[in-house]
TrEMBL record:
<keyword id="KW-0770">Synapse</keyword>
<dbReference type="InterPro" id="IPR011993">
    <property type="entry name" value="PH-like_dom_sf"/>
</dbReference>
<feature type="coiled-coil region">
    <location>
        <begin position="203"/>
        <end position="340"/>
    </location>
</feature>
<dbReference type="InterPro" id="IPR045027">
    <property type="entry name" value="Homer"/>
</dbReference>
<dbReference type="GO" id="GO:0007216">
    <property type="term" value="P:G protein-coupled glutamate receptor signaling pathway"/>
</dbReference>
<feature type="domain" description="WH1">
    <location>
        <begin position="4"/>
        <end position="116"/>
    </location>
</feature>
<comment type="similarity">
    <text>Belongs to the Homer family.</text>
</comment>
<keyword id="KW-0175">Coiled coil</keyword>
<dbReference type="GO" id="GO:0014069">
    <property type="term" value="C:postsynaptic density"/>
</dbReference>
<dbReference type="Pfam" id="PF00568">
    <property type="entry name" value="WH1"/>
</dbReference>
<dbReference type="InterPro" id="IPR044100">
    <property type="entry name" value="Homer_EVH1"/>
</dbReference>
<dbReference type="GO" id="GO:0005737">
    <property type="term" value="C:cytoplasm"/>
</dbReference>
<protein>
    <recommendedName>
        <fullName>WH1 domain-containing protein</fullName>
    </recommendedName>
</protein>
<keyword id="KW-0963">Cytoplasm</keyword>
<dbReference type="GO" id="GO:0035256">
    <property type="term" value="F:G protein-coupled glutamate receptor binding"/>
</dbReference>
<dbReference type="InterPro" id="IPR000697">
    <property type="entry name" value="WH1/EVH1_dom"/>
</dbReference>
Length: 361
C-alpha cells in the first residue's frame, strides 16, 4: 500500500518525535505508539492535491492522517502538541526533544492546512461555475402558509412549569460548567502524562549512559594506575641514566624516555578531563530525576482534583434528576388541572344548553 503512494507522493518536511494516541476507551489517557522517537513526515500528493502526515515504525504505519482545512494543531506544552483526525477517529500527540522542533512542525502544519483550504476553494469555484452554466432555469414562486399552533394557558400551573424549566436550565448550565472544568483538568493531566513519558524515556537513556560511564571510569582508573606505574618506572630509569653520566646512546634513550613521559602525562590529562565530564553528566541525571518526581507529584495532585470534580458532577447530576422529577410532577399537575377544566367546561356547556332549552320553552 505505502510504496504505491510513495511513488506519486513527495516528502516536503520531516522531523523526529515520540508518537502518542488517545486511549479510545477513556478518551483521557495517552497511549505510546512508539517506544522511541520516530520520523514524522509531511507528504504531498500532486494528483489529488492532498497533504498527509505519515510515520512508519518498522513495517507498521503509526500515523496516516490526511490534512483537512478544519484540522487544528494545538500546542499543549513547551514540547508537546496534538491534533484530532475525525476520519481515523483518534487524536494524535507528538512529544519533541526541543521547543524549536515543535514550533517548526506547528508552522508547517499551518502552511499545509492553508494550502489545503485554498485548493479546496479553487475546486469548489470550478464546480460552481460548471453548475451555474448547466442549471439555468426560470424562477419559481413559492408560497408558504404559516399557521401558529393554538396556545392553551392555565395561569396557576403554568407558573409552576416555567419555574421548573428555569431551574432545569440553571442546573444544566451548572453541569456544563463543571464538565468544562473537568475537561480542562483532563487536558492538563494528558499533558503531564506525555511529559512524564518523555522524562521516563530520557531517564532510561541517562541511566544506561551512566552505567556505561561508570564501567568506563573503572577501566580508565586501572589504565591510569598502570600509566602512573609506567611513568614512575621511566622516571627512575631517567634518573639512573642521569646519574651514570651521558653518552651518545644514553642521550638518545633519555630523549625517547622524556618523549614517552610527556605523552603519558598528556594522556593522563585527557583522562582526567573525561572523568570530569562524566561527573557533570551524573549531576544532570540527578536534576532530571528530581524533575520526574515533581511531574509525578503534580500528576497526583491533578488526579485528586479530578476526583473532586467528578464528585461535584455526580452531585449536580443528582440535583438535576431531582429537578426533573419536580418538573414531571408539575407537568402531571398541569395535566390534571387541564382535565378538571375540560370537565368543568363540558358541564358548563351542558348547563348552558339546558338553560337555552328552558328559556325557549
Amino acid at each position: 500500500m505505502f510504496p504505491l503512494h510513495r511513488e506519486r507522493e513527495q516528502p516536503i518536511f520531516s522531523t523526529r518525535a515520540h508518537v502518542f494516541q488517545i486511549d479510545p476507551a477513556t478518551k483521557r489517557n495517552w497511549i505510546p505508539a512508539s517506544k522511541h522517537a520516530v520520523t514524522v513526515s509531511f507528504f504531498y500528493d500532486g494528483n489529488r492535491h492532498a497533504y498527509r502526515i505519515i510515520s512508519v515504525g518498522g513495517t507498521k504505519a503509526i500515523i496516516n492522517s490526511t490534512i483537512s482545512p478544519n484540522m487544528t494543531f494545538t500546542k499543549t506544552s513547551q514540547k508537546f502538541g496534538q491534533w484530532a483526525d475525525s476520519r481515523a477517529n483518534t487524536v494524535y500527540g507528538l512529544g519533541f526533544a526541543t521547543e524549536q522542533q515543535l514550533h517548526q512542525f506547528a508552522e508547517r502544519f499551518k502552511e499545509v492546512k492553508e494550502a489545503t483550504r485554498m485548493a479546496r476553494e479553487k475546486s469548489q469555484d470550478k464546480m460552481e461555475l460548471s453548475t451555474a452554466a448547466l442549471s439555468i432555469a426560470a424562477p419559481q414562486d413559492l408560497s408558504d402558509e404559516l399557521q401558529s399552533p393554538p396556545v392553551m394557558c392555565v395561569n396557576g400551573p403554568e407558573d409552576k412549569l416555567f419555574r421548573s424549566q428555569s431551574a432545569d436550565i440553571t442546573l444544566s448550565s451548572e453541569k456544563e460548567r463543571i464538565k468544562k472544568m473537568l475537561s480542562e483538568g483532563s487536558i492538563c493531566e494528558l499533558n503531564l502524562e506525555a511529559e512524564l513519558f518523555t522524562l521516563q524515556d530520557s531517564n532510561s537513556k541517562l541511566v544506561a549512559a551512566l552505567h556505561e560511564a561508570n564501567a568506563n571510569v573503572e577501566q580508565w582508573k586501572k589504565q591510569l594506575a598502570a600509566y602512573q606505574e609506567e611513568t614512575d618506572r621511566l622516571r627512575d630509569q631517567v634518573a639512573d641514566l642521569e646519574a651514570h653520566g651521558g653518552q651518545g646512546p644514553s642521550d638518545m634513550l633519555k630523549d625517547e624516555l622524556t618523549q614517552s613521559l610527556e605523552e603519558l602525562e598528556n594522556l593522563l590529562k585527557a583522562k582526567d578531563e573525561e572523568i570530569r565530564i562524566l561527573q557533570s553528566k551524573k549531576s544532570n541525571f540527578h536534576e532530571l530525576e528530581q524533575e520526574r518526581e515533581e511531574a509525578i507529584h503534580r500528576l497526583q495532585e491533578l488526579e485528586m482534583r479530578n476526583v473532586d470534580l467528578e464528585r461535584r458532577v455526580q452531585n449536580a447530576e443528582q440535583n438535576l434528576a431531582s429537578a426533573l422529577e419536580d418538573r414531571e410532577r408539575a407537568e402531571n399537575e398541569v395535566q390534571r388541572v387541564i382535565q378538571i377544566l375540560d370537565i368543568k367546561i363540558f358541564d358548563l356547556n351542558d348547563l348552558r344548553q339546558s338553560l337555552v332549552k328552558l328559556i325557549s320553552k
